[in-house]
Amino acid sequence: MTFYSGIDFGTSGARLAVIDANSQLLTEVSCRFGEVTDWIATWQGALFDLINRVPEELRREVGAIAINGTSSTVLLCDAGGNPVTTPLLYNDTSGTSELESLRQFFSLERNNHAPCKDTVLSATSSLVKLLWWKRQPFFSQARYLLHQADWLGFLLHGQLGISDYHNSLKLGYDVIRLCYPEWMAELEILPLLPEVWEPGRAIAPVQPSIANQFGLPSTCLVCTGTTDSIAAFLASGATSPGEAVTSLGSTLVLKLLSTTFVEDGHYGIYSHRLGDLWLVGGASNTGGAVLQQFFTPAELDEFSAQISPETESPFDYYPLTKPGERFPINDAGLAPRLEPRPCDRVKFLHGLLESMARIEAKGYRLLQDLGASPLLRVYTAGGGAKNQAWTAIRSRQSGVPVSPSPHTEAAYGTALLAQKGLSLFKPSAPLPANQEPDLAAPG
């Protein structure tokens, strides 16, 4: 028998899942990062600790491993794969100073309609971070720009300079043409950029030392990875155009599987490639963080049970924790609207849940208005998936079935990616469209 392992590196911890050939979850192990003073040591320690905690009888049968990391978390490495500086995390804005020069670069006539510019014009994009690093004194030591998932995979398979097109989207990689855009040559960074492969593509077996140390098969393959949010979508089991996943965490994140590519920088909308389909996404600042301002978890459970979800609330709120919204309304000054506030706290909660459901429905309508496939079904991830009243309200507002995702852990979705990688295994098979002569070859 063959098992498959997916490892999820989030913002506060990591989780590993093992599934069987029928995609049944066999085991999960997790760890918390705690207070971090050295991200490299923390990530490496967590990776090996998680593998070591998998029961030995399962480890002996693991045929493939894939890893996901937080989008736009990057590091620079030397020729041996050793980090030359501290990684920059997904939310690091050190590169803000590079934004204006990058905007001016794109304003030049030859680059005015450059592909992929909307995905990189952000203070936290991988490309902006690399351009900021380029001005630092240690940059001359760097030979590879790697994403978090790339580097962790390297620790297992030993190959440098390989990434996937999910992690590389915010680096500027063109997911339509499957290559780096021509304009990137002008930035003089191509030698550091990784080769970009399809997510889930088998790279190489684990290194013999790793196999011996952890009791893994010598034939266990390490696959290209993905981002944490894409892994969470994969975990839902959504595979058909029109299926979507709403993540109800502190914010509201929508992802709709579509036959058409959609991108709109005005609303922060971009598309990830999923094989021959596109995962179109947008994110609102409304969400659970607003609810936590007014209700405890126990109150949310108690009051939600008293709501009649088939009755529409008369209150029209725009629940935000602070001014500012981008999707489905792009208004940096949009103020929270939380009045009038009834004395009955059940009615207040009903109004908040109803209003967030309207925002969600409006978001999906916007994605469709911009060309995405018609919405047919919504799966829900995040803490809000447990709220049955909210689920019913959201289904009424969106006009489609809404249900909790059968699996919500990104590690499970990444294990599915590893399963796919083993089934598609072709030794040393990068995407043929990505033959960039100036790129560093895998070491």
Outline the fold blueprint.
Blueprint: E1 3-9, E2 13-19, E3 25-32, H1 39-53, H2 56-59, E4 62-69, E5 74-77, H3 99-107, H4 117-120, H5 126-133, E6 144-147, H6 148-157, E7 162-164, E8 195-197, E9 202-205, H7 208-214, E10 221-223, E11 226-227, H8 228-236, E12 243-248, E13 252-258, E14 270-274, E15 277-284, H9 288-294, H10 297-304, H11 345-369, E16 377-381, H12 388-398, E17 402-404, H13 410-423
Parallel strand pairs: 1-4, 4-10, 4-11, 7-8, 12-16, 16-17
Antiparallel strand pairs: 1-2, 2-3, 5-6, 9-10, 12-13, 13-15, 14-15
Summarize the structure.
Helices cover 30% and strands 20% of the residues. It is an alpha/beta fold.
Keywords:
443 residues, disordered C terminus, seven-stranded mixed beta sheet, 13 helices, alpha/beta, 30% helix
By oligomeric state, this entry counts as single chain
| Helix share, percent | 25-40%
What is the ordering of alpha helices and beta strands? EEEHHEEHHHEHEEEHEEHEEEEHHHEHEH
For the largest beta-sheet, the strand count, sense and barrel status come to:
7 strands, mixed
Average pLDDT reading = 93
Shape: globular
Gap between N and C termini, in Å?
A: 32 Å
Our estimate of the beta-strand percent is 15-25%
Structural class: alpha/beta
What is the radius of gyration computed over CA atoms, rounded to a whole number of angstroms? 22 Å
Regions with little confidence, pLDDT below 50 for 5+ residues: 426-443
* Strand elements, count: 17
What is the helix tally? 13
